[in-house]
Amino acid sequence: MIKKIKNISLFSIMILLVATFISGCSNKDSKEKNITISKTDNYKIKVGYYNCDHMVSAPIADAAGIYKELGIDAEVIGNAKVPQAMLAGQMDVGYIGIDNVIKSVDNKVPMIIGADNHIGGSYYLVVSNDIKDPKDLIGQPLGIGSNPEKSSGWVEFARELGIPVEGKNYEAIDFASDKDAYLAFKTGKIKGFIACDPWGSMAEYEKTGKILITSSKLEGQWGDCCVLSINKDFAEKHPELAKKVALAHTKAMEFVYLNPLKTAKIFAKTYMVPEEVGLLTVYKKTVKEGRTLSWKIVPEQIKHELSWKQENGYVPNTVTYEELVDSKFIDESGADDFDKFIKEKVDPVFPVGMSYDEWKTKAKKLGK
Protein backbone atom coordinates (compact mmCIF):
# COMPACT_ATOMS: atom_id res chain seq x y z
CA MET A 1 0.00 0.00 0.00
CA ILE A 2 2.84 2.34 1.04
CA LYS A 3 4.68 1.47 -2.18
CA LYS A 4 1.56 2.31 -4.21
CA ILE A 5 1.23 5.74 -2.50
CA LYS A 6 4.92 6.43 -3.19
CA ASN A 7 4.43 5.60 -6.86
CA ILE A 8 1.39 7.89 -7.11
CA SER A 9 3.33 10.74 -5.45
CA LEU A 10 6.27 10.26 -7.77
CA PHE A 11 3.94 10.27 -10.77
CA SER A 12 2.26 13.48 -9.55
CA ILE A 13 5.61 15.22 -9.16
CA MET A 14 6.60 14.21 -12.69
CA ILE A 15 3.37 15.58 -14.10
CA LEU A 16 3.89 18.83 -12.20
CA LEU A 17 7.46 19.17 -13.53
CA VAL A 18 6.39 18.51 -17.11
CA ALA A 19 3.52 21.00 -16.84
CA THR A 20 5.87 23.60 -15.34
CA PHE A 21 8.38 23.00 -18.15
CA ILE A 22 5.73 23.36 -20.85
CA SER A 23 4.29 26.45 -19.20
CA GLY A 24 7.76 27.98 -18.95
CA CYS A 25 8.46 27.35 -22.63
CA SER A 26 5.11 28.79 -23.61
CA ASN A 27 5.65 31.94 -21.59
CA LYS A 28 9.15 32.35 -22.98
CA ASP A 29 7.92 31.95 -26.56
CA SER A 30 5.07 34.34 -25.90
CA LYS A 31 7.39 37.05 -24.61
CA GLU A 32 9.78 36.58 -27.51
CA LYS A 33 6.98 36.85 -30.04
CA ASN A 34 5.02 39.51 -28.17
CA ILE A 35 1.94 37.30 -28.23
CA THR A 36 -0.58 37.38 -25.42
CA ILE A 37 -1.68 33.85 -24.62
CA SER A 38 -4.86 33.52 -22.60
CA LYS A 39 -7.57 30.95 -22.14
CA THR A 40 -9.84 30.84 -25.17
CA ASP A 41 -13.40 29.76 -25.76
CA ASN A 42 -14.06 26.17 -26.71
CA TYR A 43 -15.28 27.14 -30.16
CA LYS A 44 -14.17 26.24 -33.70
CA ILE A 45 -13.83 29.37 -35.83
CA LYS A 46 -14.69 29.13 -39.51
CA VAL A 47 -12.34 31.24 -41.60
CA GLY A 48 -13.04 31.72 -45.31
CA TYR A 49 -10.95 33.11 -48.12
CA TYR A 50 -10.89 33.34 -51.90
CA ASN A 51 -8.21 31.60 -53.94
CA CYS A 52 -6.34 34.83 -54.61
CA ASP A 53 -2.89 35.85 -53.43
CA HIS A 54 -4.38 38.81 -51.57
CA MET A 55 -5.84 36.34 -49.08
CA VAL A 56 -2.60 34.46 -48.44
CA SER A 57 -2.67 35.18 -44.69
CA ALA A 58 -5.45 32.64 -44.15
CA PRO A 59 -3.62 29.55 -45.46
CA ILE A 60 -0.35 30.76 -43.95
CA ALA A 61 -1.89 31.15 -40.49
CA ASP A 62 -3.21 27.62 -40.84
CA ALA A 63 -0.23 25.83 -42.42
CA ALA A 64 2.46 27.66 -40.42
CA GLY A 65 0.73 26.71 -37.18
CA ILE A 66 -0.11 30.27 -36.11
CA TYR A 67 -3.74 29.54 -35.27
CA LYS A 68 -2.67 26.53 -33.23
CA GLU A 69 0.09 28.49 -31.48
CA LEU A 70 -2.45 31.08 -30.38
CA GLY A 71 -4.87 28.45 -29.14
CA ILE A 72 -7.34 29.04 -31.95
CA ASP A 73 -9.36 26.08 -33.20
CA ALA A 74 -9.89 27.17 -36.82
CA GLU A 75 -11.46 25.55 -39.85
CA VAL A 76 -9.96 27.32 -42.85
CA ILE A 77 -12.05 27.14 -46.01
CA GLY A 78 -10.49 28.07 -49.35
CA ASN A 79 -12.33 29.39 -52.41
CA ALA A 80 -15.29 30.10 -50.19
CA LYS A 81 -18.35 32.21 -50.99
CA VAL A 82 -17.46 34.32 -48.00
CA PRO A 83 -20.15 37.08 -48.00
CA GLN A 84 -22.93 34.56 -48.60
CA ALA A 85 -21.59 32.25 -45.90
CA MET A 86 -21.31 35.10 -43.40
CA LEU A 87 -24.82 36.23 -44.25
CA ALA A 88 -26.06 32.73 -43.56
CA GLY A 89 -24.18 32.63 -40.26
CA GLN A 90 -21.99 29.81 -41.56
CA MET A 91 -18.72 31.71 -41.33
CA ASP A 92 -17.17 33.79 -38.55
CA VAL A 93 -14.22 35.44 -40.22
CA GLY A 94 -13.59 36.11 -43.88
CA TYR A 95 -11.06 37.61 -46.23
CA ILE A 96 -13.15 39.70 -48.62
CA GLY A 97 -12.77 42.39 -51.27
CA ILE A 98 -13.90 45.70 -49.82
CA ASP A 99 -16.63 46.11 -52.48
CA ASN A 100 -18.35 43.01 -51.20
CA VAL A 101 -18.03 44.13 -47.59
CA ILE A 102 -19.64 47.48 -48.41
CA LYS A 103 -22.47 45.79 -50.32
CA SER A 104 -22.95 43.25 -47.53
CA VAL A 105 -23.16 45.93 -44.86
CA ASP A 106 -25.71 47.73 -47.03
CA ASN A 107 -27.68 44.47 -47.11
CA LYS A 108 -27.58 44.31 -43.31
CA VAL A 109 -25.10 41.45 -43.14
CA PRO A 110 -23.66 41.65 -39.60
CA MET A 111 -19.98 42.12 -40.45
CA ILE A 112 -17.31 44.72 -39.88
CA ILE A 113 -13.79 45.38 -41.13
CA GLY A 114 -11.61 44.15 -38.28
CA ALA A 115 -8.21 44.71 -39.87
CA ASP A 116 -6.71 45.75 -43.15
CA ASN A 117 -5.39 43.10 -45.48
CA HIS A 118 -4.26 44.52 -48.83
CA ILE A 119 -4.05 48.15 -49.88
CA GLY A 120 -3.94 47.49 -53.62
CA GLY A 121 -1.73 46.30 -56.45
CA SER A 122 -1.26 42.65 -57.43
CA TYR A 123 -4.32 42.74 -59.70
CA TYR A 124 -3.58 42.37 -63.36
CA LEU A 125 -4.78 42.53 -66.92
CA VAL A 126 -3.01 39.55 -68.49
CA VAL A 127 -2.87 39.37 -72.30
CA SER A 128 -1.46 36.96 -74.86
CA ASN A 129 2.02 37.56 -76.23
CA ASP A 130 0.76 38.71 -79.64
CA ILE A 131 -1.03 41.73 -78.14
CA LYS A 132 1.35 44.58 -78.96
CA ASP A 133 -0.95 47.52 -78.29
CA PRO A 134 -3.92 47.87 -75.92
CA LYS A 135 -6.12 48.69 -78.94
CA ASP A 136 -5.39 45.16 -80.22
CA LEU A 137 -7.79 43.97 -77.52
CA ILE A 138 -10.83 45.62 -79.12
CA GLY A 139 -13.15 43.01 -80.58
CA GLN A 140 -11.31 40.14 -78.89
CA PRO A 141 -12.68 37.51 -76.45
CA LEU A 142 -11.69 38.62 -72.95
CA GLY A 143 -12.32 37.29 -69.47
CA ILE A 144 -13.51 40.61 -68.07
CA GLY A 145 -17.06 39.60 -67.09
CA SER A 146 -20.17 40.05 -69.18
CA ASN A 147 -20.79 43.49 -67.63
CA PRO A 148 -17.29 44.94 -67.40
CA GLU A 149 -18.68 48.45 -66.91
CA LYS A 150 -19.58 47.30 -63.39
CA SER A 151 -16.06 46.11 -62.64
CA SER A 152 -14.05 48.88 -61.02
CA GLY A 153 -10.85 46.97 -61.79
CA TRP A 154 -11.57 46.75 -65.51
CA VAL A 155 -12.76 50.36 -65.68
CA GLU A 156 -9.49 51.52 -64.09
CA PHE A 157 -7.47 49.47 -66.58
CA ALA A 158 -9.45 50.56 -69.65
CA ARG A 159 -9.32 54.24 -68.72
CA GLU A 160 -5.58 54.09 -68.07
CA LEU A 161 -4.90 52.21 -71.30
CA GLY A 162 -7.12 54.54 -73.35
CA ILE A 163 -9.42 51.81 -74.66
CA PRO A 164 -13.24 51.64 -74.41
CA VAL A 165 -14.75 50.61 -71.10
CA GLU A 166 -18.04 49.28 -72.50
CA GLY A 167 -18.36 45.54 -72.94
CA LYS A 168 -19.97 45.92 -76.38
CA ASN A 169 -16.50 46.63 -77.77
CA TYR A 170 -15.26 43.18 -76.81
CA GLU A 171 -16.43 39.60 -76.57
CA ALA A 172 -16.78 39.96 -72.80
CA ILE A 173 -16.98 36.60 -71.00
CA ASP A 174 -17.77 35.54 -67.45
CA PHE A 175 -15.76 32.76 -65.81
CA ALA A 176 -16.55 30.94 -62.59
CA SER A 177 -13.02 31.48 -61.31
CA ASP A 178 -9.68 33.02 -62.24
CA LYS A 179 -8.34 29.50 -62.68
CA ASP A 180 -11.00 28.76 -65.30
CA ALA A 181 -10.14 32.02 -67.08
CA TYR A 182 -6.46 31.09 -67.10
CA LEU A 183 -7.17 27.67 -68.61
CA ALA A 184 -9.23 29.33 -71.37
CA PHE A 185 -6.39 31.79 -71.89
CA LYS A 186 -3.75 29.09 -71.98
CA THR A 187 -5.66 27.14 -74.62
CA GLY A 188 -6.12 30.22 -76.79
CA LYS A 189 -9.87 30.64 -76.30
CA ILE A 190 -9.50 34.18 -74.96
CA LYS A 191 -6.92 36.90 -75.55
CA GLY A 192 -6.82 38.31 -72.05
CA PHE A 193 -8.37 38.32 -68.60
CA ILE A 194 -8.26 40.19 -65.32
CA ALA A 195 -7.15 38.35 -62.19
CA CYS A 196 -4.97 38.41 -59.14
CA ASP A 197 -2.01 36.12 -58.64
CA PRO A 198 -1.01 33.34 -59.03
CA TRP A 199 -2.46 33.68 -62.54
CA GLY A 200 -0.45 36.72 -63.67
CA SER A 201 2.76 35.09 -62.47
CA MET A 202 1.61 31.75 -63.90
CA ALA A 203 1.28 33.32 -67.37
CA GLU A 204 4.80 34.73 -67.06
CA TYR A 205 6.20 31.44 -65.75
CA GLU A 206 4.61 29.32 -68.48
CA LYS A 207 5.23 32.05 -71.06
CA THR A 208 1.60 31.91 -72.15
CA GLY A 209 1.23 35.69 -71.87
CA LYS A 210 2.24 38.85 -70.09
CA ILE A 211 0.95 41.34 -67.57
CA LEU A 212 -0.15 44.40 -69.54
CA ILE A 213 -1.07 46.59 -66.58
CA THR A 214 -1.23 46.35 -62.78
CA SER A 215 -3.82 47.95 -60.57
CA SER A 216 -2.22 50.42 -58.21
CA LYS A 217 -3.20 53.67 -56.53
CA LEU A 218 -6.60 55.28 -56.95
CA GLU A 219 -5.95 58.70 -58.45
CA GLY A 220 -2.54 58.89 -56.81
CA GLN A 221 -3.50 57.60 -53.37
CA TRP A 222 -3.59 54.10 -51.94
CA GLY A 223 -7.02 52.79 -51.19
CA ASP A 224 -8.07 49.46 -49.78
CA CYS A 225 -8.42 46.32 -51.86
CA CYS A 226 -9.50 43.71 -49.35
CA VAL A 227 -9.86 43.28 -45.63
CA LEU A 228 -10.23 40.89 -42.74
CA SER A 229 -13.94 40.92 -42.01
CA ILE A 230 -15.42 39.68 -38.74
CA ASN A 231 -18.99 38.56 -38.17
CA LYS A 232 -20.47 40.88 -35.52
CA ASP A 233 -22.52 38.10 -33.91
CA PHE A 234 -19.40 35.95 -33.53
CA ALA A 235 -17.43 38.91 -32.11
CA GLU A 236 -20.12 39.71 -29.56
CA LYS A 237 -20.26 36.11 -28.33
CA HIS A 238 -16.49 35.50 -28.48
CA PRO A 239 -14.68 38.84 -28.15
CA GLU A 240 -11.39 37.27 -27.01
CA LEU A 241 -11.38 34.93 -29.99
CA ALA A 242 -12.08 37.85 -32.31
CA LYS A 243 -8.96 39.59 -30.95
CA LYS A 244 -6.93 36.41 -31.32
CA VAL A 245 -7.94 35.87 -34.91
CA ALA A 246 -6.96 39.49 -35.66
CA LEU A 247 -3.60 38.82 -33.99
CA ALA A 248 -3.15 35.62 -36.02
CA HIS A 249 -3.79 37.66 -39.16
CA THR A 250 -0.88 39.99 -38.30
CA LYS A 251 1.45 37.14 -37.38
CA ALA A 252 0.70 35.45 -40.71
CA MET A 253 1.66 38.61 -42.57
CA GLU A 254 4.86 38.91 -40.57
CA PHE A 255 5.63 35.31 -41.55
CA VAL A 256 5.09 36.16 -45.24
CA TYR A 257 7.42 39.17 -45.12
CA LEU A 258 10.17 37.38 -43.20
CA ASN A 259 9.92 33.84 -44.62
CA PRO A 260 9.46 34.14 -48.39
CA LEU A 261 10.76 30.66 -49.23
CA LYS A 262 8.53 28.94 -46.68
CA THR A 263 5.60 31.12 -47.73
CA ALA A 264 6.13 30.26 -51.39
CA LYS A 265 6.07 26.54 -50.57
CA ILE A 266 2.82 26.87 -48.62
CA PHE A 267 1.34 29.10 -51.31
CA ALA A 268 2.31 26.70 -54.11
CA LYS A 269 0.80 23.74 -52.29
CA THR A 270 -2.39 25.61 -51.37
CA TYR A 271 -2.96 27.16 -54.79
CA MET A 272 -1.60 24.14 -56.68
CA VAL A 273 1.03 25.99 -58.72
CA PRO A 274 4.82 25.54 -59.08
CA GLU A 275 6.98 26.92 -56.26
CA GLU A 276 8.59 29.38 -58.65
CA VAL A 277 5.14 30.90 -59.22
CA GLY A 278 4.74 31.12 -55.46
CA LEU A 279 8.06 32.95 -55.21
CA LEU A 280 7.14 35.39 -57.99
CA THR A 281 3.86 36.08 -56.24
CA VAL A 282 5.43 36.70 -52.82
CA TYR A 283 8.11 38.94 -54.35
CA LYS A 284 5.57 41.13 -56.13
CA LYS A 285 3.42 41.48 -53.03
CA THR A 286 6.16 42.23 -50.52
CA VAL A 287 8.88 44.01 -52.51
CA LYS A 288 8.21 44.86 -56.17
CA GLU A 289 4.90 46.64 -55.67
CA GLY A 290 5.73 47.88 -52.17
CA ARG A 291 4.46 46.69 -48.81
CA THR A 292 0.93 46.11 -50.07
CA LEU A 293 0.10 43.48 -47.48
CA SER A 294 -0.81 45.41 -44.33
CA TRP A 295 -2.92 44.89 -41.26
CA LYS A 296 -2.86 48.56 -40.27
CA ILE A 297 -6.22 50.29 -40.49
CA VAL A 298 -5.70 53.69 -42.10
CA PRO A 299 -9.04 55.54 -42.07
CA GLU A 300 -7.99 57.89 -44.86
CA GLN A 301 -7.29 54.95 -47.20
CA ILE A 302 -10.59 53.23 -46.51
CA LYS A 303 -12.53 56.50 -46.81
CA HIS A 304 -10.76 57.25 -50.09
CA GLU A 305 -11.70 53.84 -51.51
CA LEU A 306 -15.26 54.15 -50.21
CA SER A 307 -15.88 57.63 -51.58
CA TRP A 308 -14.29 56.85 -54.97
CA LYS A 309 -16.46 53.79 -55.44
CA GLN A 310 -19.57 55.54 -54.23
CA GLU A 311 -18.97 58.49 -56.54
CA ASN A 312 -18.46 56.13 -59.50
CA GLY A 313 -21.53 54.04 -58.64
CA TYR A 314 -19.81 50.75 -57.82
CA VAL A 315 -21.13 50.46 -54.27
CA PRO A 316 -24.16 51.84 -52.40
CA ASN A 317 -23.73 55.43 -51.24
CA THR A 318 -25.64 54.77 -48.02
CA VAL A 319 -22.80 53.01 -46.17
CA THR A 320 -20.53 55.06 -43.91
CA TYR A 321 -17.00 54.44 -42.67
CA GLU A 322 -18.31 54.14 -39.11
CA GLU A 323 -20.65 51.32 -40.15
CA LEU A 324 -17.84 49.50 -41.93
CA VAL A 325 -14.92 49.59 -39.53
CA ASP A 326 -14.38 48.53 -35.92
CA SER A 327 -10.68 48.65 -35.04
CA LYS A 328 -10.98 47.60 -31.40
CA PHE A 329 -10.17 43.95 -32.10
CA ILE A 330 -6.87 44.68 -33.81
CA ASP A 331 -6.13 47.53 -31.38
CA GLU A 332 -6.58 45.29 -28.34
CA SER A 333 -5.01 42.15 -29.83
CA GLY A 334 -1.39 42.91 -28.91
CA ALA A 335 -0.39 43.10 -32.56
CA ASP A 336 2.91 44.69 -33.50
CA ASP A 337 2.96 48.15 -35.02
CA PHE A 338 3.01 47.56 -38.77
CA ASP A 339 5.25 50.51 -39.71
CA LYS A 340 7.75 49.69 -36.96
CA PHE A 341 7.78 46.03 -38.00
CA ILE A 342 8.53 46.93 -41.63
CA LYS A 343 11.19 49.49 -40.71
CA GLU A 344 13.04 47.32 -38.18
CA LYS A 345 12.64 43.78 -39.51
CA VAL A 346 11.87 43.91 -43.23
CA ASP A 347 13.59 46.97 -44.69
CA PRO A 348 17.11 45.92 -43.56
CA VAL A 349 16.70 42.44 -45.10
CA PHE A 350 14.40 42.79 -48.11
CA PRO A 351 14.32 46.48 -49.09
CA VAL A 352 11.92 47.80 -51.71
CA GLY A 353 13.83 48.08 -54.97
CA MET A 354 15.57 44.70 -54.76
CA SER A 355 15.52 42.79 -58.02
CA TYR A 356 13.78 39.44 -58.08
CA ASP A 357 17.09 37.60 -58.45
CA GLU A 358 18.67 39.49 -55.51
CA TRP A 359 15.64 38.84 -53.33
CA LYS A 360 15.48 35.16 -54.20
CA THR A 361 19.22 34.65 -53.67
CA LYS A 362 19.09 36.32 -50.26
CA ALA A 363 16.02 34.40 -49.19
CA LYS A 364 17.73 31.11 -50.09
CA LYS A 365 20.94 32.13 -48.33
CA LEU A 366 19.01 32.90 -45.16
CA GLY A 367 17.06 29.67 -45.53
CA LYS A 368 13.81 31.50 -45.05
TrEMBL record:
Keyword Signal among UniProt keywords: yes
Main location: periplasm
Keywords from the UniProt entry: Signal
Coiled coil: none
Localization, UniProt: Periplasm
PROSITE patterns per the UniProt record, alphabetical: PROKAR_LIPOPROTEIN
Annotated GO CC locations: periplasmic space
Position of the signal peptide: 1-24
Lineage top rank: taxon: Bacteria
NCBIfam families found in the cross-reference section: SBP_SaoX
Similarity comment: Belongs to the bacterial solute-binding protein SsuA/TauA family.
Protein name: ABC-type nitrate/sulfonate/bicarbonate transport system, periplasmic component
Taxonomic source organism: Gottschalkia purinilytica
Taxonomy of the source species: Bacteria, Bacillati, Bacillota, Tissierellia, Tissierellales
